[in-house]
């Protein structure tokens, strides 16, 4: 009773920020993301009659992570199992500071546990119990169950593939600004924003229009239109956070320097568009043919510690036996 699964991180083009139900981790807004081939997480789950309790190891270190044990409980309840499990995870995400490692981690864990329990793994999005347990671990994680461009619907919380990874040759160029842990994790950050930001209602209200614009741009394979919707979404999300009390500021001076570099690329005719999550890193969406130029422009920004180029990737999948 064991299985190994791999999942890539996903980066939201149209952001999710805010919950309408904290216990079930239901989003206040829909979101649309790109799943990447790497970095990501590989996780093995082994249900074992000899284990007195669940155990979790991440990159060789034993951890007591409540969300991991809750996900195992949900799989056990669904499969009618009582066995405890050993969970072994390897993360290739370079930092725990807002680079979406929780999304690839929760998707890989959910699928590995689901498969180890003998539950069906042919169409992951069609398993609402799997999608829900992955979402409870991390709100953005169900999007990593599917590959390419993926939408998470606010009302049904279902995930759907909008475009397969090989259908559009895009790249996400990631400027890593720091290897420090983020100051405020996304859960408390979302609560603070909802409860204190006067812009929160406007953020929620305008969200559907950003999603519709992004969908239309994807249909037309129009990167300029998609990029404009993407930058609007991230800046509106950060504006809403900045207006919280106390203010929630994930962006650093280097983030703004990278945004200047992206604007300069556009002035030079390169279709390059930026997005930031709950951290200072800048992720730039561009055509594959422009990735080398974008990479160089981001390396030239003072203080950027590392630049990764990622491709659209597949959804969470089983690997090995
Ligand atoms: O999945 P969480 O709870 O870490 O929330 C992630 C939220 C953002 O990364 C900031 C935006 C998004 O849609 O991924």
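^ structure tokens above, recovered residues below v
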């Amino acid at each position: 009773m064991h299985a190994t699964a791999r999942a890539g991180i996903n980066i939201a083009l149209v952001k999710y920020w805010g919950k309408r139900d904290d216990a079930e981790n239901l989003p206040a807004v829909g979101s649309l993301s790109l799943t990447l081939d790497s970095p990501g997480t590989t996780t093995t789950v082994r249900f074992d009659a000899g284990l007195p309790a669940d155990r979790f190891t991440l990159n060789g270190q034993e951890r007591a992570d409540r969300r991991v044990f809750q996900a195992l409980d949900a799989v056990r309840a669904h499969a009618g199992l009582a066995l405890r499990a050993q969970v072994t995870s390897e993360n290739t995400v370079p930092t725990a500071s807002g680079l979406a490692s929780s999304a690839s981690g929760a998707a890989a864990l959910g699928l590995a546990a689901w498969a180890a329990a003998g539950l069906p793994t042919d169409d992951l999005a069609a398993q609402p119990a799997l999608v829900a347990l992955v979402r409870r671990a991390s709100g953005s994680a169900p999007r990593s169950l599917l590959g390419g461009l993926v939408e998470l619907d606010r009302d049904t919380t279902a995930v759907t593939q909008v475009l397969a990874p090989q259908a559009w040759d895009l790249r996400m160029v990631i400027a890593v600004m720091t290897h420090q842990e983020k100051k405020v994790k996304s859960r408390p950050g979302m609560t603070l924003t909802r409860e204190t930001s006067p812009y929160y209602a406007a953020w929620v209200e305008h969200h559907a229009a950003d999603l519709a614009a992004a969908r239309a741009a994807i249909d037309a394979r129009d990167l300029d239109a998609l990029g404009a919707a993407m930058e609007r979404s991230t800046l509106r999300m950060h504006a809403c956070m900045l207006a919280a009390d106390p203010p929630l500021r994930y962006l650093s001076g280097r983030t703004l320097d990278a945004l200047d570099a992206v604007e300069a690329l556009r002035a030079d005719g390169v279709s390059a568009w930026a997005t930031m999550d709950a951290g200072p890193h800048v992720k730039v969406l561009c055509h594959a043919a422009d990735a080398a130029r974008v990479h160089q422009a981001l390396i030239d920004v003072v203080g950027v510690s590392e630049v990764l180029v990622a491709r659209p990737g597949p959804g969470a999948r089983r690997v090995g036996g």
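The pocket of PMV is lined by residues 12, 15-17, 31, 102-103, 138-140, 186, 277-278 (CB under 6 Å).
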